[in-house]
């Protein structure tokens, strides 16, 4: 392996992380990083002071350009556009504070919130607030002055402030709440389902125009509980088989729901520690394909052991 390949492979996880948080889909992020590799492979890098600075600049600028195009396309998307979730693994022992911080910058709630920002503001905010870049580095990456970048980040934080106000919920608390909800859904216990949902809870669904989904936010504990109950009733009549698995999605506990053995949705949850306040339900088959493949590999590994 030559030095250029070694440098790129060493930095690939960081580049992939930036691209995913910028674009919100794994496929687009992987394609962008591959494009960066081709540019890196062809570039004269001997005179570079920092391979990392060069690569981060290229991946960020390409992501800004692609996000501008994507935002235009998403204006014509059928229903709600939600990010593509990822299965994430436990990386080993960590404090509750570290787990919470790690989940917060990749959670589905956070990625959905980033959609509020213009591409350049999203890049500046992520580089500074998530990847801890100095303002000098942010300025160099975006080709702007440090003062301008400080303004951009400040405005981005103000834009996101309302959406990020939430009570810190420990992973253990979130797990207990979600496992109780999953058990109630498996039993078809409408009362328990409703009790675990905040009165003003929201459910947002992305079908991508390929499978049915709500074209508006489903509001209220009773309506959301009825949705889960309706599916249980069909399963209890033998019309379909229903299975739910608790998994780590984007650093937080979520649910995979299987119907007739096929992954039907990946569900991410927000809570206040006592009740579920919002559900993001990804049903678009294109955004479920990688999760289904990863889950099949995980299950095969567990069965083999």
UniProtKB/TrEMBL annotation:
PANTHER family associated with the record: ECF RNA POLYMERASE SIGMA FACTOR SIGJ (PTHR30173:SF36), SIGMA 19 FACTOR (PTHR30173)
Domain called RNA polymerase sigma factor 70 region 4 type: residue spans: 108-160
Name of the protein: RNA polymerase sigma-70 factor
GO molecular function: DNA binding; sigma factor activity
Domain RNA polymerase sigma-70 region: 8-71
UniProt record, GO biological process: DNA-templated transcription initiation
Quaternary structure note: Interacts transiently with the RNA polymerase catalytic core formed by RpoA, RpoB, RpoC and RpoZ (2 alpha, 1 beta, 1 beta' and 1 omega subunit) to form the RNA polymerase holoenzyme that can initiate transcription.
Source domain of life: Bacteria
């Amino acid at each position: 392996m030559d030095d250029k390949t070694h440098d790129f492979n060493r930095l690939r996880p960081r580049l992939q992380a930036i691209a995913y948080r910028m674009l919100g889909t794994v496929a687009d992020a992987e394609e962008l990083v591959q494009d960066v590799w081709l540019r890196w492979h062809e570039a004269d890098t001997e005179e570079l002071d920092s391979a990392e600075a060069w690569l981060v600049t290229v991946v960020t600028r390409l992501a800004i350009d692609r996000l501008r195009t994507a935002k235009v396309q998403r204006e014509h998307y059928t229903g709600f556009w939600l990010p593509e979730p990822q299965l994430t693994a436990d990386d080993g022992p960590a404090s509750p504070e570290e787990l919470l911080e790690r989940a917060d910058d990749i959670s589905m709630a956070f990625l959905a919130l980033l959609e509020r920002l213009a591409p350049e503001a999203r890049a500046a905010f992520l580089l500074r607030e998530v990847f801890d870049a100095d303002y000098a580095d942010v300025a160099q990456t975006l080709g702007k002055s440090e003062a301008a970048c400080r303004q951009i980040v400040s405005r981005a934080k103000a834009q996101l402030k309302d959406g990020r106000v939430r009570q810190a919920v420990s992973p253990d608390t979130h797990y207990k709440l979600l496992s109780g909800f999953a058990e109630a859904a498996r039993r078809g216990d409408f009362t328990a389902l409703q009790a675990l949902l905040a009165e003003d809870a929201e459910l947002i669904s992305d079908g991508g125009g390929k499978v049915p989904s709500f074209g508006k936010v489903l509001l209220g504990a009773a309506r959301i509980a009825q949705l889960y109950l309706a599916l249980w009733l069909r399963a209890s009549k033998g019309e379909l088989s229903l299975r739910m698995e608790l998994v780590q999605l984007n650093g937080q506990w979520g649910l995979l729901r299987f119907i007739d053995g096929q992954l039907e949705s990946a569900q991410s949850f927000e809570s206040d520690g006592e009740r579920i306040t919002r559900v993001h339900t990804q049903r678009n088959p294109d955004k479920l394909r990688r999760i289904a493949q990863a889950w099949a590999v995980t299950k095969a590994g567990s069965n083999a052991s």
